[in-house]
Design brief:
- Helix 2 runs antiparallel to helix 4 and helix 5 crosses helix 10.
- 41% of the residues lie in helices and 20% in strands.
- The strands form two sheets. The chain has a seven-stranded mixed β-sheet with strand order 1-5-6-10-9-8-7. Strands 2-4-3 form a three-stranded antiparallel β-sheet.
- 29% of the residues are buried.
- It is rod-shaped and about 140 Å long.
- The chain contains twelve helices and ten strands.
- Bound molecules: 3,4-dihydroxyphenylalanine (DAH).
- 3,4-dihydroxyphenylalanine binds next to strand 9 and strand 10.
Amino acid sequence: MISELQKLEKDALAELSAAEAEDQFLNIRTKYLGRKGLLTGLLRNIAQVSDNEKPLFGKLCNELKNSLNSKIDAALLEQANRNKENILLKEKIDVTLPGNAVKYGHIHPVVQIRREICSVFASFGFSIVEGPEIELDYYNFEALNMPKDHPARDMQDTFYIEDNIVLRTHTSPVQVRIMEKVRPPLRILSPGKVYRRDSDVSHTPMFHQIEGLLVDKGVNFGDLKGILSAFLKKIFGSATTLRFRPSFFPFTEPSAEVDIRCVMCGGKGCRVCGQSGWLEILGSGMVDPAVFQNVNYDPEEYSGFAFGLGLERIAMLKYGISDIRLFFENDIRFLKQF
Ligand code: DAH
């Protein structure tokens, strides 16, 4: 029996030194010291031990039990400490590393262009005014000399809210709203959102326009050319070449579109200008007498000019952006370039 006890001790120690994980140590404890454990079993058979060996056998059993228990406890403790150390090593924080930089937003390119244009016209004495985006048919069309059956309405794919209420298709209605309230002379600039049923690389259902209007006694086409030339040279550079091209708008007569020499190719012809060497920048013209009559201005006494332009288009040309939809995807990688 004593030799069995010695063999059992040797086995238990060998198993202990091979074990690594907590559950292995606990299993060894159960295997040898548990209620049905091997050492417990040996003790139970003490009756088979000769009487003179019994005290010694009992003593050795107890010693082995105690020493195994304390070895297992020590191993468990050591294992727990090792775990803690591992966790500390793994989760170590290097407080000397630089922190994550906070990402700052900045002004959207369309807003930058809007502010730039507004400040140029403010320096020409224009006031900045705004009008509603949900607009009456009357202001968006009728008062601007586009009656219900006018073909020019087809150029503007309109979102209708009700029969007589639309999402404004341009910022021109603000002209009429202001003239109804204010007597000349006046110089106003009106930036804002406009809406058209259209979507592709150069159209989005919502985009931004700026409308300008100047009315006074004796205003002529030379004034229009002078102000618009000065404006475009401020935005695109003093060397910019301009072209005033005859056009048609129901609310101006005569009307002109203003082009600049292509900023990409300098006029040689490229993809951006469609090989023409010119970029269309804005629509303009002398306010049609019919519009003045709608707001009770006397066309014999007053004259004026108006113009309108798309902000995204200007930003696209200025920054060489080929897809208008990029402005509204809010991809930081795109926006942070401006
Ligand atoms: N409202 C026009 C458009 O959206 C732009 C425009 C052209 C405005 C000529 C004007 C103008 O005031 O005189 O296409």
